[in-house]
Structures
1.
Amino acid sequence: MVREHRADGTEPTDRWWGSYAARASGMIASEVRALFAVASRPEIVSLAGGMPAVDALPLDAVASTVADLVTSRGRVALQYGSAQGDPELRARICDVMAMEGITDAHPDNVVVTVGSQQALDLLTRVFVDPGDVVLTEGPTYVTAINTFAAYQARVVHVSMDGDGLVPDALRETLTRLAAEGARVKLLYTVPTFQNPAGITLTASRRAEVLEICRRAGVLVVEDNPYGLLSFTGEPVRAMRADDPDGVVYLGSFSKTLAPGMRVGWALAPAPVAARLVLAAESAILSHSMFTQLAVERYLATQPWPEQIKAFREMYRDRRDAMLTALAETMPAGATWTRPEGGFFIWLTLPDGVDAKAMLPRAIAARVAYVPGTGFYADGSGRNAMRLSYCYPPPERIRDGVRRLADVLRAEISLRQTFAPLATTNPRATNPRATNPRATNPRATDPRPAAPRTSDFRDQ
Ligand code: PMP
């Protein structure tokens, strides 16, 4: 063991302090984590977490499925399986993806993973060396940023608007990175009902993004845990449906069945799938046969499409409650997205309001949200926040939004009182706002991004 002393001569309390790998050394707890511990108290309306409403699951049906599984196939369910996953489940996963237009998927190209989170981890492990670039929407899914950072990737955001990722911005970013000599490995995108912005990439942009990435030799990672939760009932065609070689598709049963099952998957071109299986072997040896078969049996014996329909209706009512409450209560200058599915609304605050600075006051007022900066690798998103409508029932959502609007009004009036001391122009406070390299302050910094921990474990 390497024994190190701090500059003041004291020994660190962690005996192994000097032994950690470089990639672990940047893992620091976030400043807002303590606040989230408080936010789980019952008196606080949490619009922060992205937890699916599992109360809406028919627990009796889950119980009988699991009981049947143990009695009829217990010896298989309780045994080791393969790292690629159970073949019957993989075949069923292909049927699930057909609902989103993926009709050519073969079970051999499916790798079952411990939630889609593990698929993301395995993919990063097999594609990304320290310093390689991963492109993502800005904002993007917080735990994806953490995964990329854990492998010392350089995360570069590409801007989005109401129609999703902006193709011109993607082209410009690729040109700039090519000029720098950067190695761009992946475009990570959540194109449908995005976490955190609730935005869906339009069909024409999907084709454009695929074409840009094909020309640039960049693999597209389509992360799609919310795709079946469309409020119109119309499924959105997956990007993978139009580009079997250029896209790795990630799916999950976490939002359409139960996250506790921890069953997700990757559909990948054959050589990529083979590498993912090798990586999975070293990570977990074998996925849980028990939960894989429980999911497979549930899909085979229960009216799962009806269940998804019930989830969709429930989440749509919650989304409506939040949209109505926002329209009724938010002060001028606040804007928000209008998701057509999924769990999240992105709220942009009037100029100059800092969502992270405001969070302790919101929690004191018994409402919690996730500040926008959590969804960027570069400190952007200060005047934004993610609001989740998935978990609290509509009346709690309405209460939470009302409390949030009151806190925001107080914040704005405080700013107005102290206007001469404060700057209302974000361009003056945020040099990135005028800097064409805004999407990535590390654009000229060869250091890999520091690994971080997440405040929002369930998202
Ligand atoms: N991707 C996105 C965009 C998510 O929001 C989540 C979880 N909320 C995941 C991946 C991981 O989901 P799981 O591991 O439960 O499948």
2.
Amino acid sequence: MTTKSIKRGTKKTVGSSSTPLNKAELKAAIVKHLHCSLGTDENKANNHAWWKATCASVQEHVLEGLRKTQKSHYLNDTRAVHYFSAEFLMGRLTSNNLHNLGLFEQTEKALNELGVNLTDIMEEEQDMALGNGGLGRLAACFIDSLATLDLPAVGYGLHYEHGLFRQEIKNGEQIERPDSWRDYGNPWEICRPESIQDIPLFGYVETKYGENGRVSKEWHPGHIVKGLPWDIPVVGYGGKTVNVLRLWQSQASDYFNWDVFNAGGYVDAQKENVQAETISKVLYPNDETEAGKELRLIQQYFFSACSLKDIIRRYKRAHGDDWSRFSEQVVIQLNDTHPAVAIPELMRILIDRAELDWDYAWSICSKTFAYTNHTLLPEALEKWPARMFEKILPRHLEIIYEINHRFMDQVEAVWPGNNAIKQKLSIIEEGAEKMVRMGNLSVIGSFAVNGVAEIHSALVKKDLFPEFNHMWPDKLTNVTNGITPRRWLKACNPALSQLIDGKIGNDWPLHLHKLQGLAEFADDAKFQKQFMKIKHDNKTQLAKEVFTLTGVEIDPNAIFDVQIKRLHEYKRQHLNLLHIMALYRRLLENPQYDIHPRVFLFGAKAAPGYKLAKDIIYAINKVAEKINNDPRVNHKLKVVFLPNYRVSLAEKMIPAADISEQISTAGKEASGTGNMKLSLNGALTVGTLDGANIEIAEEVGDENIFIFGLTVDEVETLDRKGYNPFDYYDNNRELKAVLDWLDSDYFTPGKPGALSSLKRSMLEGGDPYKVLADFVSYSDAQALADKAYKDSAKWAKMAILNTARMGKFTSDRSIKDYVERIWKLVPCEVE
Ligand code: Z16
């Protein structure tokens, strides 16, 4: 066995010497693909064709790596993690693959000699936006790290035809347009018709009585749909291990509605096909609220069932019908509760198909699954009406009842006669409508449950699942999130990466703690100048992009203050907006008001049904319009809302940011990951003591971050006392003036009240996220940030120390934590 234990900080060099493709070979391959795959030539090809030919040339090489990796995993019969996630927010793949293969510079040169610019042609790639935000991007960073660390892993998810909607802004309002990322084909994915799975749905359950007195169940499904897998190779940094991300597309099955077809109902049969193909049509755009839609549950079951069948097929190839080693070979990580239906699905397979008895089946099942929780917000916790469940998955509901029944006996043993606790812990919520609680099912069916930052995990134990924590004190744990430094520094910020290489060597993308080595230059005037020159260049580049996208001119000498994340009340973009309005007022009242010029940049999509979130986008755009066109202030203040925020736009904004806005109400942001990306690129955080901000502050030091606002404990105390936003409104003149301003037609001429919903939510609405309570503290922190920026040497030092001290937040560290605490995997080196 070519196995080794996980090494922290070992060799593995990345560079051109080890890669089998040199510049001449690359040129030849690209030209060959222009001719043979794309049917064009060097003179006729446009950027799109050049991009595709380049991908195809590299893909040949990637597929070799994939084959070797799969062979090696098979021969070593490795234990593997299966990362089940309804979302993988991959973004673009080309730059990442080139960097991870060590081919970026050669490809750049090869194309140059062909008269083509790599950066330009990479703009042809559509983002793979198969995710909403942090949860989906986390999955993408994790599979990058898994491959980089040579760990056997498969990502499983859905091959949505349409990813997260494309956002347009019309007259300040968000418009949703379909995302069609595959319109001109995706050169990185491979269709695998040889691995199609059949998935049953609907129907009824028959109870059968065997001769030996054995009672068994048979599910007679009403429909069968096909799952067709598409594989995306996932290249680890260094290019050795190439794992796969396997995404399932739904199709009508061949024997689907044969009767209708034979009866001459060809067109009707087509209608049924359309329904089957609807399953993987579109990603639900809600990030922190549950839509409760039937199709969504079908999506969840569809990809979970396809993935389990795939895993079992592979297991049986090595172990036949011997189930005793299943949980030694297979660990399944549930990324939130979206794939939790995999738990009763595995039970169904083991009991109804493999005919194992319940206890044995359960012992396998409950050693196989682990569950990651990403939120405490009650509206995000998944619940399905039992009636809906029964209609779609009748056998699974029976199994869930049985799991619950046995679990209730365990609860009875711990808290005899305590019905209140039973009601709280039950998988089934009794009420006007019976509901299936997917969080409770996930905790009961998993051997490990983790939160995503220290504070979040502490709150999961204390507030969300305290009784479960009492019953199984070792089950609940923490794994703090991380980000891949390959995409989020090396690839997106090449100038800074080169500067770092020159100072500390080039193996920091694998060993991010080495960035520590930059700290000794934090006071070095020359290094400060170099560091800030790169920031300035990145800002100049972003300014060009901003002008192209919005027509707004911004000055790279201004502070670039960035808030990029989904639009949600708890993330408090409206707190940022109130502060911008306060600055505007101060400047109008006192034209000498001394602040360094600042550009506030926003990027955010609102869930289409989330009215107030859309109102906040509208308000940001209307305030922006007014300020940007007001000659009294627009040399000091600009506000830009960049439309269609997505991974590829983040890659342009993050390297250009001076200030990172991480201003959620304490206790509400589970972790955050944008906070890590921005700090890694030398932006200073203005943030609350929430999620991973707390751990970022611990790493960078209190003097290198601007912390403000209520703590989790203070929020709790305030709630207990009874929070009244009017206390703040009535006692702060500036805050009152700014809120009242929203009621006027100043920002929406001729349309008074167009922004009033914001004010109402923060007053009559009770201000559920305590914007008013944190306003003064936030405004003070912003004043400190302004003051710090005016001392450019001080600012440079702080920025450098942010980059230098982000080592902890590499997703490689997160993955090592998962491996040691939960997955117990062993790396498997490839060739
Ligand atoms: C999501 O992106 C997150 C939580 C959730 O319930 C649903 C979605 Cl789509 C985010 C958290 O809000 C964020 O704090 C965290 O960093 C991220 O998941 C990854 O854990």
